[in-house]
Amino acid sequence: MNKVPNLPFVHLMPFVDIEEKREVLLVTSTPAWNAVKDSLRGLNIAATIEVIEATIENWDSLLTRHDSPTEVIYAVGGGLTADAAKYFASKLNLPLVVLPTALSVDAFITAASGIRKDGCVYYIETKVPERLILDLETVAKAPAFIRAAGITDVMSIATGAWDWKFAHEQGKNPQGMEFIPWVYDNAQSILNSVFDCAEAAGRGDSDGLKTLYDCLAMEVQLCNQIGHSRPEEGSEHYFAYAVENEMGHGLPHGDLVGPAILLIAKLQGQDTSRLEKALKACNVPLNNIPQEMIERTLKILPDYSRKHNLSFGIAHTL
Ligand SMILES: [Zn+2]
Fold it and tell me: For 68-87, what is each residue's pLDDT tens digit?
């Protein structure tokens, strides 16, 4: 590891107060844009790219078709939009401002973009957005199932950090991913804080959403400091990647990772009542993966995890 990414500079302000004179390349999705476009009349939009896929081929083809001169990229929407915008901003060498329409994932503030390749999710280094504009009133108005679904990327500490420690006890952490007790303890502390804000965040309360954002930010920066995501990414994410591949794309990240946390935590022998309560408080859908799909995915998960070189966790041993 020779780089430690930072977090975006955050502005807590209503979208209606944004005034952008530079020529904007807008990266968005139709549902997100329709929900907030009336508040974003202050953007000087020169071109728009709509993103519906997370593959390099798709993103490159969108870039090829884009040829208007622009000075800054604005990403308006959820995780997919942010991931694609980070890719475009790094390719075009443009500054990036991210406007989440829901706190649905941690992708708004990470330095990498998740892409689908060979039936799995890989993270490629792109860039951290320079700025993040957080309009908590707008986030509060997002559909309930997605509004605070980013809690899953903090709650995955419960199962991801467990895996990291498990791998340590089995002597399976490679060089550069050694178990670090203080990092583990910090992750647990972030996890405990997110339980406390789950109910308020889920109902769209501003303070609750701000705390959820703080927990996401601390989780991301903790991973930035050590150069990998083992404190928050483990078998629950592997299951989500595998089941997404089995089902075909379409379900939001939280719909996959939420139930996966419960499933994996049970297999790890953890008490899941606190986890389930927090996920329900944040309106994360827990029943959108059909039972037979869950069973099929659990069967293939050990081979899948090995095949895609995923860091050792309970998934490898099922
Ligand atoms: Zn995630």
Answer: 789 999 999 999 999 999 99
Question: What is the helix (H) or strand (E) element at residue 23, kind and residue range?
Answer: strand 20-28
Q: Quote the percentage of the chain above a pLDDT of 90.
A: 96
How does DSSP assign 137-167, residue by residue?
A: HHHHHS-HHHHTTTHHHHHTHHHHHHHHHHH
Could you tell me how many helices (H) and strands (E) the chain has, helices first?
13, 8
What is the 106 CA–ligand 1 centroid distance (Å)?
A: 7
Topology given in CATH for the domain delimited by 145-317: Dehydroquinate synthase-like, alpha domain (1.20.1090)
List, for residues 216-264, the tens digit of each pLDDT value: 999 999 999 999 999 999 999 999 999 999 998 779 999 999 999 999 9
Q: Is 208 exposed, middle or buried (0-12, 13-18, 19+ CB in 10 A)?
A: buried
What's the rounded Cα separation, in Å, for the pair 115 and 237? Answer: 14
Residue 237 CA to ligand 1 center (angstroms) comes to: 7
The CATH class of the 9-142 domain is alpha beta
Q: Quote the ligand 1 centre to 241 CA distance (angstroms).
A: 10
